[in-house]
Protein backbone atom coordinates (compact mmCIF):
# COMPACT_ATOMS: atom_id res chain seq x y z
CA UNK A 1 0.00 0.00 0.00
CA UNK A 2 1.25 3.45 -0.87
CA UNK A 3 2.75 5.35 2.03
CA UNK A 4 0.94 8.41 0.69
CA UNK A 5 -2.50 7.10 1.64
CA UNK A 6 -4.15 9.50 4.09
CA UNK A 7 -7.08 8.58 6.32
CA UNK A 8 -9.68 11.31 6.67
CA UNK A 9 -11.66 11.09 9.91
CA UNK A 10 -14.81 13.20 10.24
CA UNK A 11 -16.02 14.09 13.75
CA UNK A 12 -19.65 14.80 12.97
CA UNK A 13 -21.13 16.55 16.03
CA UNK A 14 -19.15 16.09 19.26
CA UNK A 15 -20.16 17.57 22.61
CA UNK A 16 -18.28 20.88 22.57
CA UNK A 17 -20.34 23.09 20.27
CA UNK A 18 -23.98 23.85 21.01
CA UNK A 19 -26.99 24.38 18.73
CA UNK A 20 -26.96 28.15 19.19
CA UNK A 21 -23.47 28.39 17.68
CA UNK A 22 -24.42 27.11 14.23
CA UNK A 23 -27.68 26.15 12.51
CA UNK A 24 -25.71 23.50 10.61
CA UNK A 25 -24.65 21.45 13.65
CA UNK A 26 -26.43 18.06 13.42
CA UNK A 27 -28.50 17.31 16.49
CA UNK A 28 -31.18 14.71 15.80
CA UNK A 29 -30.35 11.11 14.87
CA UNK A 30 -31.61 11.76 11.34
CA UNK A 31 -29.37 14.82 10.97
CA UNK A 32 -26.35 12.98 12.37
CA UNK A 33 -26.92 10.06 10.00
CA UNK A 34 -27.45 12.32 7.01
CA UNK A 35 -24.31 14.36 7.63
CA UNK A 36 -22.21 11.29 8.45
CA UNK A 37 -23.24 9.55 5.24
CA UNK A 38 -22.52 12.68 3.19
CA UNK A 39 -19.10 13.00 4.85
CA UNK A 40 -18.30 9.41 3.91
CA UNK A 41 -19.39 10.04 0.34
CA UNK A 42 -17.09 13.09 0.28
CA UNK A 43 -14.09 10.97 1.28
CA UNK A 44 -14.08 10.32 5.04
CA UNK A 45 -13.13 6.71 5.76
CA UNK A 46 -13.67 7.00 9.54
CA UNK A 47 -16.73 8.60 11.15
CA UNK A 48 -16.24 9.68 14.77
CA UNK A 49 -19.65 9.84 16.44
CA UNK A 50 -21.30 11.31 19.52
CA UNK A 51 -25.03 11.47 20.25
CA UNK A 52 -27.28 14.32 21.30
CA UNK A 53 -30.66 14.48 22.95
CA UNK A 54 -33.02 14.93 19.99
CA UNK A 55 -35.23 17.30 21.98
CA UNK A 56 -32.69 20.01 22.74
CA UNK A 57 -29.28 19.01 21.38
CA UNK A 58 -27.49 18.45 24.66
CA UNK A 59 -24.81 15.70 24.69
CA UNK A 60 -26.35 12.27 25.28
CA UNK A 61 -24.83 8.96 26.38
CA UNK A 62 -28.03 7.00 25.79
CA UNK A 63 -27.34 3.86 23.69
CA UNK A 64 -30.92 4.01 22.41
CA UNK A 65 -30.15 7.36 20.75
CA UNK A 66 -26.94 6.00 19.19
CA UNK A 67 -28.88 3.04 17.82
CA UNK A 68 -31.20 5.39 15.99
CA UNK A 69 -28.36 6.43 13.67
CA UNK A 70 -25.64 3.75 13.81
CA UNK A 71 -27.49 1.13 11.70
CA UNK A 72 -28.61 3.78 9.22
CA UNK A 73 -25.01 4.88 8.65
CA UNK A 74 -23.76 1.30 8.42
CA UNK A 75 -26.37 0.40 5.81
CA UNK A 76 -25.54 3.42 3.67
CA UNK A 77 -21.74 3.47 3.78
CA UNK A 78 -18.70 1.24 4.29
CA UNK A 79 -16.97 3.83 6.49
CA UNK A 80 -15.41 2.76 9.78
CA UNK A 81 -17.63 3.85 12.67
CA UNK A 82 -15.69 5.21 15.64
CA UNK A 83 -17.76 5.82 18.79
CA UNK A 84 -16.58 8.32 21.38
CA UNK A 85 -15.72 7.08 24.86
CA UNK A 86 -15.04 10.70 25.82
CA UNK A 87 -18.69 11.64 25.54
CA UNK A 88 -18.69 14.81 27.56
CA UNK A 89 -16.34 15.81 30.37
CA UNK A 90 -19.43 16.01 32.61
CA UNK A 91 -20.45 12.36 32.10
CA UNK A 92 -19.42 9.42 34.29
CA UNK A 93 -17.20 6.72 32.83
CA UNK A 94 -20.06 4.20 32.78
CA UNK A 95 -22.22 6.69 30.89
CA UNK A 96 -19.41 7.34 28.42
CA UNK A 97 -18.95 3.61 27.75
CA UNK A 98 -22.58 2.53 27.56
CA UNK A 99 -23.14 3.01 23.82
CA UNK A 100 -19.79 1.54 22.78
CA UNK A 101 -20.29 -1.56 24.91
CA UNK A 102 -23.72 -2.02 23.34
CA UNK A 103 -22.55 -1.46 19.76
CA UNK A 104 -19.09 -3.15 19.89
CA UNK A 105 -17.72 -0.95 17.09
CA UNK A 106 -14.52 -1.44 15.14
CA UNK A 107 -12.99 1.64 16.74
CA UNK A 108 -13.47 3.97 19.70
CA UNK A 109 -11.68 7.08 20.88
CA UNK A 110 -9.71 6.78 24.12
CA UNK A 111 -8.52 9.88 25.96
CA UNK A 112 -5.07 9.34 27.45
CA UNK A 113 -5.20 11.46 30.57
CA UNK A 114 -7.18 13.51 33.06
CA UNK A 115 -7.08 17.21 32.26
CA UNK A 116 -8.68 20.60 32.42
CA UNK A 117 -10.93 20.82 29.35
CA UNK A 118 -12.01 24.43 29.18
CA UNK A 119 -14.71 25.34 26.70
CA UNK A 120 -16.25 28.12 28.82
CA UNK A 121 -14.58 30.66 26.52
CA UNK A 122 -17.01 29.71 23.75
CA UNK A 123 -19.75 31.58 25.63
CA UNK A 124 -19.27 35.09 24.25
CA UNK A 125 -20.89 38.11 25.90
CA UNK A 126 -24.28 38.93 24.43
CA UNK A 127 -24.86 35.52 22.85
CA UNK A 128 -28.48 34.48 22.44
CA UNK A 129 -29.09 30.91 23.53
CA UNK A 130 -31.75 28.54 22.23
CA UNK A 131 -31.55 26.40 25.37
CA UNK A 132 -30.74 27.15 29.00
CA UNK A 133 -28.41 24.13 29.25
CA UNK A 134 -25.92 25.56 26.74
CA UNK A 135 -24.23 28.30 28.82
CA UNK A 136 -24.46 26.11 31.94
CA UNK A 137 -22.60 23.24 30.25
CA UNK A 138 -19.87 25.55 28.97
CA UNK A 139 -19.42 27.29 32.32
CA UNK A 140 -19.24 23.96 34.16
CA UNK A 141 -15.93 23.24 32.43
CA UNK A 142 -14.33 26.13 34.33
CA UNK A 143 -14.42 24.13 37.57
CA UNK A 144 -14.62 20.55 36.30
CA UNK A 145 -11.95 18.01 35.41
CA UNK A 146 -12.11 15.69 32.41
CA UNK A 147 -11.35 12.49 34.29
CA UNK A 148 -9.35 9.76 32.57
CA UNK A 149 -7.28 8.03 35.24
CA UNK A 150 -4.95 5.08 34.67
CA UNK A 151 -7.64 2.88 36.21
CA UNK A 152 -10.24 4.33 33.83
CA UNK A 153 -8.02 3.63 30.83
CA UNK A 154 -7.30 0.08 32.01
CA UNK A 155 -11.05 -0.48 32.39
CA UNK A 156 -11.76 0.71 28.85
CA UNK A 157 -8.94 -1.40 27.39
CA UNK A 158 -10.27 -4.48 29.16
CA UNK A 159 -14.00 -4.04 28.60
CA UNK A 160 -13.94 -2.67 25.06
CA UNK A 161 -10.58 -3.81 23.74
CA UNK A 162 -10.43 -7.35 25.09
CA UNK A 163 -14.17 -7.77 25.49
CA UNK A 164 -15.36 -6.44 22.14
CA UNK A 165 -12.35 -6.57 19.83
CA UNK A 166 -12.53 -2.79 19.46
CA UNK A 167 -9.34 -0.92 18.59
CA UNK A 168 -8.66 2.64 19.62
CA UNK A 169 -7.92 6.13 18.41
CA UNK A 170 -5.68 7.26 21.26
CA UNK A 171 -6.40 10.94 21.83
CA UNK A 172 -3.30 12.71 23.15
CA UNK A 173 -3.87 16.31 24.22
CA UNK A 174 -0.32 16.84 25.45
CA UNK A 175 3.13 15.28 25.40
CA UNK A 176 2.58 13.55 28.75
CA UNK A 177 -0.30 11.61 27.21
CA UNK A 178 2.16 10.02 24.78
CA UNK A 179 4.22 8.78 27.71
CA UNK A 180 1.08 7.41 29.38
CA UNK A 181 0.29 5.53 26.18
CA UNK A 182 3.86 4.17 26.16
CA UNK A 183 3.23 2.83 29.68
CA UNK A 184 0.29 0.75 28.43
CA UNK A 185 2.23 -0.24 25.30
CA UNK A 186 5.17 -1.49 27.38
CA UNK A 187 2.78 -3.50 29.57
CA UNK A 188 1.33 -5.16 26.47
CA UNK A 189 -2.15 -3.79 27.14
CA UNK A 190 -2.16 -2.05 23.77
CA UNK A 191 -0.58 -3.38 20.60
CA UNK A 192 0.45 -1.80 17.35
CA UNK A 193 -0.17 -0.45 14.91
CA UNK A 194 -1.30 2.31 17.25
CA UNK A 195 -3.50 5.09 15.88
CA UNK A 196 -2.63 8.28 17.78
CA UNK A 197 -4.67 11.45 17.44
CA UNK A 198 -2.64 14.57 18.26
CA UNK A 199 -5.24 16.96 19.70
CA UNK A 200 -4.13 20.59 19.56
CA UNK A 201 -5.88 23.75 20.68
CA UNK A 202 -8.07 22.68 23.60
CA UNK A 203 -7.71 25.00 26.61
CA UNK A 204 -5.94 22.79 29.14
CA UNK A 205 -3.99 20.86 26.50
CA UNK A 206 -1.13 21.63 24.13
CA UNK A 207 -1.58 24.71 21.96
CA UNK A 208 -2.36 24.66 18.25
CA UNK A 209 1.10 25.72 17.07
CA UNK A 210 3.26 24.20 14.33
CA UNK A 211 6.11 23.81 16.80
CA UNK A 212 3.90 21.73 19.10
CA UNK A 213 2.76 19.47 16.28
CA UNK A 214 6.35 18.85 15.23
CA UNK A 215 7.28 18.13 18.86
CA UNK A 216 4.40 15.68 19.35
CA UNK A 217 5.50 13.77 16.25
CA UNK A 218 9.14 13.80 17.33
CA UNK A 219 8.28 12.31 20.74
CA UNK A 220 5.88 9.76 19.25
CA UNK A 221 8.60 8.68 16.81
CA UNK A 222 10.98 8.27 19.74
CA UNK A 223 8.51 6.24 21.81
CA UNK A 224 6.81 4.08 19.18
CA UNK A 225 9.12 3.96 16.15
CA UNK A 226 7.36 2.42 13.16
CA UNK A 227 4.58 0.85 15.24
CA UNK A 228 2.15 3.75 15.05
CA UNK A 229 0.26 6.04 12.72
CA UNK A 230 -0.76 9.52 13.70
CA UNK A 231 -3.60 11.85 12.85
CA UNK A 232 -4.01 15.54 13.63
CA UNK A 233 -7.00 17.31 15.15
CA UNK A 234 -6.81 21.06 15.60
CA UNK A 235 -9.57 23.10 17.21
CA UNK A 236 -11.25 26.10 15.67
CA UNK A 237 -9.40 28.33 13.23
CA UNK A 238 -6.28 26.14 13.45
CA UNK A 239 -8.10 23.19 11.90
CA UNK A 240 -7.12 23.36 8.24
CA UNK A 241 -3.57 24.79 8.60
CA UNK A 242 -2.48 22.29 11.25
CA UNK A 243 -4.03 19.20 9.69
CA UNK A 244 -2.48 20.14 6.34
CA UNK A 245 0.88 20.35 8.08
CA UNK A 246 0.21 16.96 9.64
CA UNK A 247 -0.45 15.43 6.25
CA UNK A 248 2.82 16.82 4.87
CA UNK A 249 4.60 15.18 7.83
CA UNK A 250 3.18 11.80 6.83
CA UNK A 251 0.11 11.80 9.04
CA UNK A 252 -3.63 11.47 8.72
CA UNK A 253 -6.25 14.16 9.26
CA UNK A 254 -9.47 14.85 11.13
CA UNK A 255 -12.12 17.41 10.25
CA UNK A 256 -15.72 17.89 11.31
CA UNK A 257 -18.09 20.22 13.11
CA UNK A 258 -17.00 18.76 16.45
CA UNK A 259 -13.63 20.46 15.98
CA UNK A 260 -14.52 23.60 14.02
CA UNK A 261 -17.79 25.16 12.91
CA UNK A 262 -16.10 27.10 10.10
CA UNK A 263 -14.93 26.56 6.53
CA UNK A 264 -13.13 29.90 6.25
CA UNK A 265 -12.56 33.13 8.12
CA UNK A 266 -15.95 34.15 9.54
CA UNK A 267 -17.79 31.65 7.32
CA UNK A 268 -19.74 28.84 8.95
CA UNK A 269 -19.39 25.44 7.33
CA UNK A 270 -22.75 24.32 5.97
CA UNK A 271 -21.99 20.66 6.60
CA UNK A 272 -19.38 18.16 7.66
CA UNK A 273 -19.06 17.05 4.04
CA UNK A 274 -17.96 20.56 3.07
CA UNK A 275 -14.97 20.29 5.39
CA UNK A 276 -14.17 16.78 4.15
CA UNK A 277 -14.27 17.98 0.54
CA UNK A 278 -11.99 20.92 1.39
CA UNK A 279 -9.28 18.80 3.00
CA UNK A 280 -9.58 16.17 0.28
CA UNK A 281 -8.87 18.83 -2.34
CA UNK A 282 -5.87 20.04 -0.35
CA UNK A 283 -4.51 16.50 0.02
CA UNK A 284 -4.92 15.71 -3.65
CA UNK A 285 -3.25 18.98 -4.60
CA UNK A 286 -0.30 17.81 -2.47
CA UNK A 287 -0.21 14.58 -4.52
CA UNK A 288 -1.47 12.58 -1.55
CA UNK A 289 -4.07 9.84 -1.96
CA UNK A 290 -7.13 9.51 0.27
CA UNK A 291 -7.52 6.09 1.89
CA UNK A 292 -10.70 4.12 1.30
CA UNK A 293 -12.47 2.54 4.30
CA UNK A 294 -11.00 -0.87 3.42
CA UNK A 295 -7.51 0.62 3.20
CA UNK A 296 -8.05 2.31 6.58
CA UNK A 297 -9.10 -1.03 8.07
CA UNK A 298 -5.93 -2.64 6.75
CA UNK A 299 -3.70 0.22 7.94
CA UNK A 300 -5.17 0.11 11.47
CA UNK A 301 -5.74 -3.67 11.79
CA UNK A 302 -9.48 -3.31 12.47
CA UNK A 303 -11.82 -6.28 12.90
CA UNK A 304 -14.21 -5.37 10.08
CA UNK A 305 -17.68 -3.92 9.83
CA UNK A 306 -19.27 -7.39 9.86
CA UNK A 307 -18.20 -7.94 13.47
CA UNK A 308 -20.03 -5.08 15.14
CA UNK A 309 -23.27 -5.39 17.14
CA UNK A 310 -25.50 -2.98 15.22
From TrEMBL:
Highest taxon in the source lineage: Bacteria
One GO MF term attached to the UniProt entry? metal ion binding
Name of the featured protein:
3-keto-5-aminohexanoate cleavage protein
The record's annotation in PANTHER family points to:
3-KETO-5-AMINOHEXANOATE CLEAVAGE ENZYME, 3-KETO-5-AMINOHEXANOATE CLEAVAGE ENZYME-RELATED
Q: Which cofactor does it need?
A: Zn(2+)
User: What keywords would UniProt list here?
Assistant: Metal-binding, Transferase, Zinc
Please name the Pfam families in this protein's record: BKACE
* Keyword DNA damage annotated: no
Give a yes or no for keyword Zinc in this entry.
yes
Which InterPro entries does this entry report, sorted A to Z? Aldolase_TIM, BKACE
Amino acid sequence: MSKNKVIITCAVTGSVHTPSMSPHLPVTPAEIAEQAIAAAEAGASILHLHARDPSDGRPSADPAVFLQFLPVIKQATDAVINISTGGSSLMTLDERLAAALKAEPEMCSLNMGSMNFGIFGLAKPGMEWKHDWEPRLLEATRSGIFKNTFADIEDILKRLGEGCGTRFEFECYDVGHLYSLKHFYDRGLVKGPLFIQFVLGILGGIGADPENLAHMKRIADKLFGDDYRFSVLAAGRAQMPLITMGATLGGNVRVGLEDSLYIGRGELATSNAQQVARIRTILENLSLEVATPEEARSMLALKGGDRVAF
